[in-house]
Design brief:
Layout: E1 4-6, E2 9-11, H1 16-19, E3 21-22, H2 27-37, E4 39-48, E5 58-67, E6 72-77, H3 80-91, E7 97-100, H4 103-111, E8 120-123, H5 124-131, H6 140-148, H7 152-167
Parallel strand pairs: 3-6, 4-7, 7-8
Antiparallel strand pairs: 1-2, 4-5, 5-6
């Protein structure tokens, strides 16, 4: 494993920057990429929503997409209305493979807004459970820590500090 130097300290852990780069993309660029690759490696970002008719009391507020060919990750803020209008065709297309984390939750979230998720190919949470059924924390942060040795909180703090220094 590589050693990285941060603030005078050696860090043996892999960093996300060594696995992929973060790039800004528009919703249109992301949609075109998904259609071109016929694959969607995605993570839906949510926040609490107390809508009484919802089974899962959350609403979608963002979408992260990973471009495997270029080793790039992108995030866009997106409303549920935009998902229905702009991404319904992709979520319901069986030809486009869907890869993600906790796709059973994603299935319900999308169903609640009138989208039938099709083309599920791989769910990281299910794979993680198969590897270790006694683990009860299947959130992305825990999986990154265990399998990639990435402390997401630490990485976010460093990234925020780097951005703050760049804007000065």
């Amino acid at each position: 494993m590589n050693d990285f130097l941060y603030g005078g300290e050696v860090n043996n852990k892999k960093e996300p920057k060594d696995l992929f780069k973060i790039v800004d993309k528009t919703k249109e660029e992301i949609i075109n990429l998904i259609k071109k690759q016929k694959q969607m490696i995605a993570y839906l970002h949510t926040k609490e929503d107390q809508e009484p008719s919802k089974i899962i009391k959350e609403k979608v507020v963002g979408l992260s997409i990973f471009n495997e060919e270029e080793k790039e990750a992108s995030y866009v803020e997106i409303t549920e209305e935009e998902i229905v209008k702009e991404l319904k065709e992709i979520w319901e297309n069986e030809e486009i493979k869907k890869i993600g984390i906790n796709l059973s939750k994603v299935y319900i979230l999308l169903k609640q807004i009138g989208i039938d998720l099709k083309g599920i190919n791989y769910d990281v949470s299910i794979s993680s459970y198969i590897l270790n059924p006694s683990r009860n924390k299947l959130e992305i942060e825990n999986l990154m820590q265990e399998y990639l040795e990435i402390d997401l909180d630490e990485w976010i703090r460093r990234r925020a500090k780097t951005r703050a220094n760049q804007s000065v």
